[in-house]
From TrEMBL:
<dbReference type="GO" id="GO:0016787">
    <property type="term" value="F:hydrolase activity"/>
</dbReference>
<keyword id="KW-0479">Metal-binding</keyword>
<keyword id="KW-0378">Hydrolase</keyword>
<protein>
    <submittedName>
        <fullName>Hydrolase</fullName>
    </submittedName>
</protein>
<dbReference type="Pfam" id="PF00702">
    <property type="entry name" value="Hydrolase"/>
</dbReference>
<dbReference type="GO" id="GO:0046872">
    <property type="term" value="F:metal ion binding"/>
</dbReference>
<dbReference type="InterPro" id="IPR036412">
    <property type="entry name" value="HAD-like_sf"/>
</dbReference>
<dbReference type="InterPro" id="IPR023214">
    <property type="entry name" value="HAD_sf"/>
</dbReference>
<dbReference type="InterPro" id="IPR023198">
    <property type="entry name" value="PGP-like_dom2"/>
</dbReference>
<dbReference type="InterPro" id="IPR006439">
    <property type="entry name" value="HAD-SF_hydro_IA"/>
</dbReference>
């Protein structure tokens, strides 16, 4: 069996979810005097940034005419913080190298804008591991819709049945399973016992659990 591994980015390749939240909290406090709380973020983890911003502005009755400006400011600030202090997920370099040495095809499928994907791949110097890097920002549907994963499989000339997705978010996990793919859940520690993650084929705590799982499939 030939397996293609599809990585989400934020929370899987790099510990950037806290960076996004810190930047968004600082921006809305400064621009609108608004203190964002966990409830503002929890349902939208893994979704495209613009979708999150639209819902946030609706929720708090904020003006929507300048969402493109807000989006660009937030993405730019996140990118700068990641360049200044990147935090790769523990074990990610070893996992990528192990899969690469075994000639296992790999791709990135992220809800982040493409320029942010490029920023992370270049900052961590891991671009050479991946045959494709795809953003949901230009797609008709973001996660939890399966479009991004089905498009990734098509680009990789891979059968969805033989794709393995690694995701940290529930929305991403739902998208992967809807695409007919196997999926490993790597939830944040505070979400580790959320029963909804049992949708995954397995729940893992560390990247060193990925290769043993793959070897059970071959």
């Amino acid at each position: 069996m030939t397996i293609t591994v599809i990585f989400d980015m934020d929370g899987v390749l790099i510990d950037s979810e806290p960076v996004w939240q810190d930047v968004e909290k600082a921006f809305y406090l400064q621009e609108h005097g608004l203190t964002l709380v966990d409830a503002d973020f929890s349902a939208f983890t893994g979704m495209p940034v613009m979708f999150f911003l639209r819902k946030l502005h609706e929720r708090h009755q904020l003006p929507a005419h300048d969402l493109s400006r807000v989006h660009d400011i937030i993405v730019g600030r996140v990118a700068e913080k990641i360049r200044q202090q990147p935090r790769p997920m523990p074990g990610i370099f070893q996992l990528l190298d192990e899969l690469y040495q075994r000639n296992i095809a790999m791709a990135v499928a992220s809800s982040s804008p493409l320029r942010q994907i490029d920023n992370v791949l270049d900052t961590l110097n891991i671009r050479h591991y991946f045959q494709a890097a795809i953003s949901a920002e230009t797609l008709a549907h973001g996660k939890p819709h399966p479009e991004i994963f089905l498009n990734t499989a098509a680009m990789m000339d891979a059968d969805p049945e033989f794709c393995l997705v690694i995701e940290d978010s529930l929305n991403g996990l739902i998208a992967a399973k809807a695409a007919g793919m196997r999926a490993l859940a790597l939830p944040a520690p505070h979400q580790r016992h959320d029963p909804r993650f049992t949708l995954a084929d397995a729940i893992i705590d560390h990247h060193d659990e990925v290769l043993p799982f793959i070897l059970t499939l071959r």
